[in-house]
Amino acid sequence: MANSIIIKNLTKIYKTRSINKNQVKALDNVSFSIERGIVFGLLGPNGAGKTTLIKILLGIVFPTSGTAEILDKNISNYEIRKSIGYLPENHKFPNYLTGEEVIVYYAKLNGFNISKNSPQVENVLKLVKMEKWRKVKIKKYSKGMMQRLGLAQAIVHEPEIIFLDEPTDGVDPIGRKEIRDILIDLKNKGKTIFINSHLLSEVEMVSDKVAILNEGKLVKFGTVDELTVNKQICEIKTEKPLSGDLVNLLQKKFTMKINNNLLTLEISNNNDLNNFMDELRKAEINIIGVNQKKTSLEDLFIKSLTEKNN
Ligand SMILES: Nc1ncnc2c1ncn2[C@@H]1O[C@H](COP(=O)(O)OP(=O)(O)O)[C@@H](O)[C@H]1O
Ligand SMILES: [Mg+2]
After folding, report:
1. What is the H or E stretch that residue 273 is in?
2. How far is the CA of 4 from the centre of ligand 1 (A)?
3. Considering only CA atoms, which residue is closest to atom 11 of ligand 1?
4. 3-224 has which fold?
5. How confident is residue 310, by pLDDT bands cut at 50, 70 and 90?
6. Which atom of ligand 1 lies nearest, measured to the CA of 166?
7. Residues of the chain with CATH 3.30.70.1150
8. Residue 43: helix, strand or coil by DSSP?
9. 159 in ligand 1 pocket by Cβ < 6 Å?
């Protein structure tokens, strides 16, 4: 079983009662698949349709058309729920509960009957580094702690696939790093993780694959490398400026600019960079620094949102 999630031609149209529009196309013929055991990031601005897609996969919202499968079962099959964990966007846990009570409460809602003293509760609190806070009412928690607890309730029943809707929204940088570390830990345990986010940099750091959704349409899909590798810029600093002859030779083979001992090279892959280095080494040039600048996912993100119908 290679894929954990297969999405085929999903479309969702919400009927609304707004005066100027009586329907919203939240998803427009979206198809893609996610392999098992990867971290997948679904990116897009607010209103792109990300939450709608997760809710369809969870069976909370029904698609207008199209189908999806999770772990080889159609999403209409309720059996799948046992294999899924979910951290909703803007969740509000009852704030008079303690951390451990939240975990037990949501586990029970999901048909998983445990008590505060169950080893599962202990394990999951350890995993999200919240053991010290387990007996404290959650109204005392910071946003980062709340999200870590949210993660704990999403994974206490040891699901195969974990859906996280904007897990780091409103969390400070240290809290975000803590959440990322937990996600990497979960991935190393073989889980498939599906993250919705409008915060690119977050997803870029942890995701094996990403998709960009805009106005309900899938505009990009692939690994972060595949999506960003098209053109890279390399800055190479040499000990001394190059001789005129060497510059002529290099400029015949490569696209580069020269400013004293700083060479700015355009490459499309690492081979190009290695070939360039070989030429420099052949000429016995001392290299004192190499700085590779990738097109960032952010550049790509902005580009795909502005270039419509690409
Ligand atoms: N229950 C609903 N009824 C009507 N429109 C909705 C409903 N839920 C979401 N929408 C609309 O669908 C679009 C996609 O929303 P959503 O899936 O929440 O996007 P995202 O999570 O990417 O911000 C938005 O235009 C939103 O206003
Ligand atoms: Mg959302």
Report:
1. helix 270-282
2. 25
3. 26
4. Rossmann fold (3.40.50)
5. very low
6. 21
7. 231-294
8. strand
9. no
pLDDT at residue 307 tops 70: no
> Looking at ligand 1, which atom is closest to the CA of residue 61?
1
When comparing pLDDT for 267 and 240, which is higher?
Answer: 240
Note the pTM of the prediction, 2 decimals: 0.81
Q: Point out which residues pair with 210 in neighbouring strands.
A: 41, 222
Q: Which residues of 110-140 are buried (b: 16+ CB within 10 A; e: fewer)?
A: bebebeeebebbeebbebbebbebbeeebee
197 Cβ inside 6 Å of ligand 1 = no
> pLDDT tier at 263 (50, 70, 90 boundaries)?
very high
Q: Which fold has domain 231-294?
A: Alpha-Beta Plaits (3.30.70)
Residues of the chain within CATH 3.40.50.300 domain(s) are 3-224
Q: Is 14 in the pocket of ligand 1 (CB under 6 A)?
A: yes
Residue 301: band (very low, low, confident or very high) from pLDDT cuts 50, 70, 90: confident
Q: Is the CB of 62 under 6 A from ligand 1?
A: no
pLDDT digits (tens, 9 = 90+) for 58-114: 999 999 999 999 999 999 998 998 899 999 998 889 999 999 999 999 999 888 899
Say yes or no: CB of residue 52 within 6 Å of ligand 1. yes
Q: Does 46 sit in the ligand 1 pocket, CB within 6 Å?
A: yes
